[in-house]
Amino acid sequence: MNPMESMLILVVVVVLIAVPIMAIVAFVRTLTVQRSVNQIPQLTSRIYDLEQRVKSVDRKVGALAVNGAGDAPTNSRVGAPAPPTPAAPVSAKLPEAAPVQPVQPPAPKPPLAAGVAGPPVPPLPGAPPTPSHATLTPPRSTVSFQAPASSSAVPPRSPAPPAPPHHASAAPPPPQSNGETDVESMIAGRWFNYVGILAVALATAFFLKYAFDNNWIGPGGRVTIGLLVGGLMYPLSQWVFNRGYQYYSEGIAGLGAGILYLSVWSGWHYYHIFPQSDAFPLMIAITAATAVVAIGRNSERIAVLALAGGLLTPLLVSTGQNEEVALFSYLIVLGGGMLAIAWAKKWKWVAPLQFVATLIYFWGWYGEYYGRYELGNTVFFATVFFVVFAALPAVRSTREGELSGVDIAIVLTNAFQYLIALRLMLWPEYRWGLTLAVLALAAAHLLAERALPRKTTPANQTARTIYAGLALTFATLAIPIRLDGKWITIAFAVEGALLIWSGLRVRSLALRTAGFVLFSIVGVRLAILIFSASTPDTFLLNERFLTLAIGAAAWLAAFIFAKQSDCDLGPAETQMYYFLAIAANFCFLLALSMDVWDLFGRASVGIDRGLAQQLALSVLWIVYAFVLLVVGVLRQEATVRWQGLGLLCVAIVKVFFFDLSFLARFYRIISFFVLGLVLLAVSFFYQKRAKALKGS
Asked: Which of 161, 162, 158 is nearest to 80 (CA)?
């Protein structure tokens, strides 16, 4: 099978796949329209019922009006004066009825002679007995009338000829739309049209193949025919569009673009009629023409077709060589133009398709051709790609105050794939460059967050959280990129305290949560430091003690910030701050204990090292517990006092059960003496506190 046959088979397969998809889409749209149309007869029937009810009320009111006009001495409709009579006035009020427009009776009746009663009128509810002579007005009005004093005949005025009723006759409701007829029209009117177009296209393709096989048409003629046919598809598409066939016109435009792409590719790659330097601009021109058609018709589907052709162009003109500058420059121009169109037209599918295709091209090229000698160009193009795809969501969020689901996916994926690219290219030779790049990422996302309009909608809060979270993440990642060992732990501890302070100030749970996450990382790193650090040579002024002390200070600072804040905190978060205070005390005491233990372990002045270490540890714990108790009493902090009491209990157990059994007499004396003094002082403080509370 030669390449031309393969190309034709590919076109046929694409058409066979596209036609059923278009048919299914048309079928779904037709069913949706049909459901809407089927509701029209129901509404018409309801209107018809309402008209019949209104006519019935009109007829009754008209009959009452005519009867009253025949018996009454006046005609209220024409305003003829009636002679005064001594009869007592009687009033009646009609029952409440639905508001309707008063209409004339359906047909005029001859005037009734005086004293001749008309048809009987039913009594009005709630009205007193009245004579049969009355002049009525439309419903919802209070009618006053007078009965004649005698039966003397008064020549009545003939009623004015009534106007024809507004609802003289109501046409029956239209028949229900037939679903079978709609399906029949869709199959015969649309699907057969698709199949007919496909049949003609296949016949033309088979004829051309036959002509090609028999050399009726040479390579140049074949390419020329393809270019002419593809070019004519655009005005044909416009002609079809002007007659209201939008979907047909879009399909014809897409088919024309495909024929043009294949013709240019065949002329360059298969027949070698023109070089690649001519094929590439021709394909760019085809993409631009299709994009212009999409903009002119405001059709996202044509724009997607243009984008697909533009993204296939590098594959079609590829020579298998490393053309980084040409490939990435083309993708930047195509991406910038398409994203500008998507922003102006508010199209949602152009940006993700362009983004995914660009990532595929970039990482495909990176895995195949990247070398260290291309570091500068690759970093530049990767940065431009990041800026291009970060710009559209940022502009949209600035204008609308929120991010769509697709924009959120692009923002997150774009940021982290750029970070991965920088990490692969710059680590470890260019750590400072990588650090500055990550900090720049943090600053860019922070600026995007600050540029968002202030709204109280959940979507706005989500957008702000995403940008702020990315800024915080990149700022945090810059620490381990540039620092090592203890400096990472210290930086994380300080950053965690700042996050909690900021979260309390601006009442942001997300910032406080990020601070707790960093504190968790600090705790793990401190635990690793305790077991892996070597024995220091100096007391207190060493890496291990300072790292533990700074971590404890950061935890204690977070607790103090929460105590002094007026931010509303939940029970669980409140308990977390108390846990941080306890962890800070434990961490600082552990650091002191380890340094004191190592200090007396290095002593070489004739003192037993093991006994000296145990005694020093007991004294340290007792003194530390006493300090906690004093601070807790003075500052009225129950948590601090309970920590002191707990540590003091541990010290008592150690002195009575360990020091008493294993320490020599001299060390036992010191241990018990210090413990006794502390216990007496603690007892005095508590008795004094109890007396003060009782006196108050």
From this structure: 158
